[in-house]
Amino acid sequence: MSIINNKFFVLGSNFEGSDDPLRQILSAYWIQKDEDISFAGELALDDEGFINRGNSAKFIIEKQELIDGEIEVDSGFIYRYPIIYQEIIIRDRSPYGGPTGMTVAYQTFLDEIDKIKDQDPVIFEDYAFSLDTPIVYPSSHDNQSKLEGDVDFIYNYGLESYESTIAPTDFDESTILNYYDYFERKQGIKVAKYGGLPKVWRADHKDPLDDSNPAVSKLNVTTKLEDPLYLEEQPSQQNYFITSEDYESAMNLRDSEIDTDGNSIFPFCAKVEFTSPATCAIKTIKYDSASGEKGVKQVRVCDEIQKTITGTNLCTPITSYCSDLLAPGGVSDYFDKKAFNNNTLIPEYADALQTLFDEIYTIESNTLNLVDIFLMVNNLYNQESVNATPPTKGYYRDGSDETYMAKGDEDFKNLVAGALEIFLGEVEEKSYENVRTYTDILNGTPSYESDIVFYKISKFDASADGDGAIPLQNIWIPGNSGTSDKIVNYIDFQVKYGKRYTYKVYAYKFVIGTKYIYQIEDIVEAVEEEGDDTTAPKVPDDLSPFDEGMDRPKKIVDREEELPSNSGRGDGSHGDK
Predict the structure, then answer these.
(1) 75 pLDDT tier (thresholds 50, 70, 90)
(2) Using the 8-state DSSP alphabet, how is residue 329 labeled?
(3) Which of 53, 223, 428, 536 has fewest C-beta within 10 Å?
(4) Among 140, 160, 159, 142, which Cα is nearest to 150's?
(5) Which value, to the nearest 10 degrees, does the dihedral of the CA atoms of residues 488, 467, 31, 278 take?
(6) What residues have CB less than 8 Å from 41, skipping those under 6 apart?
(7) Which has the closest alpha carbon to 514: 127, 228, 31?
(8) What's the count of helices (H) and strands (E) in the chain, helices before strands?
């Protein structure tokens, strides 16, 4: 029976305790419970419709109002994001609460509240999301993981001069001829930059480097690879991008390893393969073609955010932006590094023969990068550099080595501006649909999360792999990649013979987190005083998703629409990551 290793991630600051003192008092944080990460306590409605916490506190929501925060960035885009103001009264859960009948538990609760009520308001954040991952077994015996990955090194024939040329340690693997470029790049032809559909490409497997000998063959390849001058002319590709539009075509090149004479074309390569855990639903639909043919077919129905990113001209600009931002030298103002805790399964040998395994649950800590979506959109539109020395790039079906950050390129703006506007609309819609109240957070309601929007395959020198190791190369592919059986493949020809490599696969998701702030107005012991009106706390500018130097909300207006029906989900203020 196959096993899914579902990792549930929560902020480290809200695990086994909380930086939020009120959450700490109420035990409203995540804990390790049995074989999973669970919420320490849950809010529940009593017979009177009040929210109860344990044996002491009863929550009464006096007022809840949804308002709009509005930001107009210098790109001209306007983004509205939801703010929920909640006025909450907490009183003794006991029906005999009050000065004469207060329970011991509630008195203890009041004592704790009294210690924090005069503290200055602090902005807190909350994230909680999941990801299906493989179980990493030390051998192929008894492998129970439903999601698997493998690297197969293939050696077809020897090519001594080529192997000698690329063998030195100072020869950069990312300058070795790329398998996909060999088939698809046509020299001297400019194609649309920045991830747009290419104007010209070759999909007929003709040799793009030798028009006099159009058929790709072992002879063509060996002739080029044995020419040291040719190898020295290849551009570096520290990051290589395959867009959603091109992925299926790139995967079809798996069938192009044999020439017309039956010879293996390339001397050696590595094949990286893994199962995609993408959660796009398979849906059966009826179709009626123009030719009159009717029938049913299965299609993948993906999350709207994933579709918007991978199905438009945004796929390469966004992945290319992330590659710049998260590389050494990236501007730290545009992303956050945060500590998360997650559960995971690790295998242990179950027998002396080491052929059977037991899967053991454990908790691990990881530092994750949160890329600010709003700043990304603004930077993409304005073509702002986010790294003084960005890594080199290569694009499938793109002969240009220019970056997408070229200042003043109007073609790029025309190509991407419309897609960015659609994307912001999707983000706004998801924000209003999935905003969480403070009581939602106190009850452990997870954040909204999309399907996987893209993968990064990082290649490391196996001898140098470890904490702090810098990858030799990163390959970026869309999250809706994979064949019908969800198998993702990449052929890596940019390797050296006899050298060992480690490949790590990273998944990127869109997650709506929550920023919130509160203040304790007073401690009221008499029940009859609980209904007194209080003044709503001022929402500070710091709750804007933008950092210093960015526009603040232009206005805050009343929103006439009814609150969302899904448990009144809303909350202080939030920033999307």
Answers:
(1) low
(2) T
(3) 536
(4) 140
(5) -10
(6) 26, 27, 28, 53, 54
(7) 127
(8) 12, 23
Per-residue model confidence (pLDDT) at position 275: 84
Percentage helix, strand, coil, to 5, in the chain? 25, 30, 45
- Termini Cα distance of the chain: 36
The beta strand positions in 16-136, using DSSP E, are 30-33, 36-39, 44-45, 51-53, 57-72, 78-92, 124-126, 128-133
DSSP 216: -
Rounded to whole angstroms, how far apart are CA atoms 383 and 406? 7
Q: How far is CA 49 from the centre of its chain?
A: 38
Distance CA 36, CA 33 (A): 6
CA-CA distance, 212 to 210, in Å (whole number)? 5
- In tens, the pLDDT along 535-544 reads 444 444 555 4
The token pair that represents 4 in the structure block: 């899914």
Give me the residue label for tokens 């907490």.
90
The 3-state DSSP class for residue 107 equals helix
Residue 532 to residue 473: CA distance in whole angstroms: 62
Output the six-digit token pair for 73: 């960035």
* pLDDT tens readout for residues 76-96: 677 788 899 998 888 887 765
Rounded Cα–Cα distance for residues 416 and 314 (Å): 7
CB 149 within 8 A of CB 270: no
Phi/psi of residue 489, each to 5°?
A: -125, 145
d(CA 58, CA 46): 9
pLDDT in tens, 335-375: 999 999 999 999 888 888 888 888 899 999 999 999 998 88
Amino acid letter, residue 380: L
Contact residues for 511 (Cβ-Cβ < 8 A; gap 6+): 127, 129, 370, 447, 448, 449, 450, 576, 577
Q: Which residues pair with 264 in a beta bridge?
A: 258
pLDDT digits (tens, 9 = 90+) for 246-270: 676 666 555 456 666 677 778 888 9
Which of 99-113, 299-313, 393-407, 522-536: highest mean pLDDT? 99-113
Cβ-based burial of 291 (10 A; exposed 0-12, middle 13-18, buried ≥19):
exposed
Residue 291 in this model has a pLDDT that exceeds 80? no
Count of residues making up the chain: 577
Contact between residue 372 and residue 512 where contact means Cβ atoms under 8 Å apart: no
Query: How many CB atoms sit inside 10 A of residue 16's CB?
Result: 13
Q: Note the pLDDT of residue 194.
A: 29
pTM of the entire structure? 0.80
CA distance 362 to 360: 6
Lookup: tokens for 314: 């945004």
